[in-house]
Amino acid sequence: MRAAVLRQLGKPPGVEEFAEPVAGDGEVLVHVTAAALKPVDRQMAAGTHYASPRELPVLCGSDGVGLLEDGTRVFFGGPRAPFGAMAERTVVRRAQCFSVPAELDDATAAAVANPGVSAWLSLKHSAKLAAGETVLILGATGVTGMMAVQIAKVLGAGRVVAAGRNERTLRALGALGADVAIQLNRSEQELIEAFRNEAGNKRFDVIIDYLWGRPTESLLAAITADEFTVAGPETRLVEVGESAGPTITLPAAVLRSTALKILGTAGIPPWATLIEAFEQVMKRAARGELRIAIERVPLADIEQAWERNASGRRIVVEP
Ligand SMILES: NC(=O)c1ccc[n+]([C@@H]2O[C@H](COP(=O)([O-])OP(=O)(O)OC[C@H]3O[C@@H](n4cnc5c(N)ncnc54)[C@H](OP(=O)(O)O)[C@@H]3O)[C@@H](O)[C@H]2O)c1
């Protein structure tokens, strides 16, 4: 079968013939129709992700949509290595296959699952967003950030502040539910002022951070108090991504002067929580309440697509 084969970390995969997968106990064979190219797929192949493969070659792609042998259409996650989602066929545990609403086409279902479920879990499960709270999405112009803007509103956020770099995408976020936009492409001092103005207007209850690096440092500088204050309610910052950098400098002053709680997103949440998030995202995407821009690419073009910045769109590979 044809598949996106990774032979060297740090290089894009190439399309080659690869051995057919065979399903073992508890597993099913999936005839793949669509697999999204996500940041995690690129990070794994680059060797920069903590779970990057130790043995090569492997097939790329961590999830997708396809048909089981009996014709059932499913979304699947976690193919058994060395198999992957960007291939004509793959093999996964049956328990990791979920039904997809009939109204959603394969490419949209494949695209929306990862950013949608991640944003849903970050806001509801990690940050425990309460109705009426103010949410800052740092990195709102990325595919997952755009999903988080929409889901924050679905979950009852009072005010959604969208911070991002891409001017055009940032302008379009109002239609997805953002109340205010903060442009990141400016001097550090201007950015600190912009965050400070917004935080002064209405304190951030929840921050979902897809960037880390310098934008996060500016944000932390902006919310650091410059005098003794009475302790207020917590600001919960959920670290989800590192598009702007893998590290930050964390001054003690921000933790000593504000009720800031920094949360991680490690590990797979309890199964019931994951299923609820998946079903909510799929149902709302099928109804058109959650929107995502996609770009379909044939498997044969994976090498060029791998290097391309699709800016605000999710590339979906079709084997
Ligand atoms: N743990 C999880 O479950 C999970 C799930 C989804 C995503 N993530 C992580 O979250 C991050 C974003 O994911 P995504 O799906 O939104 O990615 P994406 O669609 O590829 O978007 C990346 C975004 O990062 C922005 N960006 C890149 N470098 C930047 C910089 N130096 N300063 C400011 N903005 C910068 C890009 O802005 P431009 O548009 O201007 O280029 C773009 O908006 C990634 O690190 C990803 O791995 C984690």
Compact summary:
This protein has 319 residues and is of the alpha/beta class. It has helices at 39-46, 106-126, 143-154, 167-172, 188-201, 213-223, 252-257, 271-286, 302-307, and strands at residues 2-6, 14-17, 27-37, 58-59, 63-68, 73-77, 89-93, 97-99, 134-138, 159-164, 180-183, 206-209, 235-239, 260-263, 293-298, 313-318. A hairpin with a 4-residue loop joins strand 5 and strand 6.
Keywords:
Quinone Oxidoreductase, Chain A, domain 1, 7-stranded mixed beta sheet, alpha/beta, binds NADP nicotinamide-adenine-dinucleotide phosphate, single chain, 319 residues
Task: Tell me about this structure.
It is a single chain. The chain is α/β, with parallel strands linked by helices and 319 residues long. The protein folds into two domains: 2-100 and 290-318, Alpha-Beta Complex (Quinone Oxidoreductase, Chain A, domain 1); 114-263, Quinone Oxidoreductase, Chain A, domain 1, CATH 3.90.180. It has nine helices and 16 strands. Strands 3, 5, 6, 7, 8, 15 and 16 form a seven-stranded mixed beta sheet that branches. Strand 10 (159-164), helix 4 and strand 11 (180-183) form a beta-alpha-beta unit. Helix 2 crosses helix 8 (271-286) and helix 5 (188-201) crosses helix 6. The termini are close together. The relative contact order is 0.16. NADP nicotinamide-adenine-dinucleotide phosphate (NAP) binds at residues 39-40, 114-115, 118, 139, 141-145, 164-166, 169, 184, 210-211, 215, 240-244, 265, 309, 311.
Structural class: alpha/beta
Ions, cofactors and other bound molecules: NADP nicotinamide-adenine-dinucleotide phosphate
| The CATH top-level class label of the largest domain | Alpha Beta
Radius of gyration over C-alpha positions, nearest whole angstrom:
20 Å
Taken together, the total number of domains comes to 2
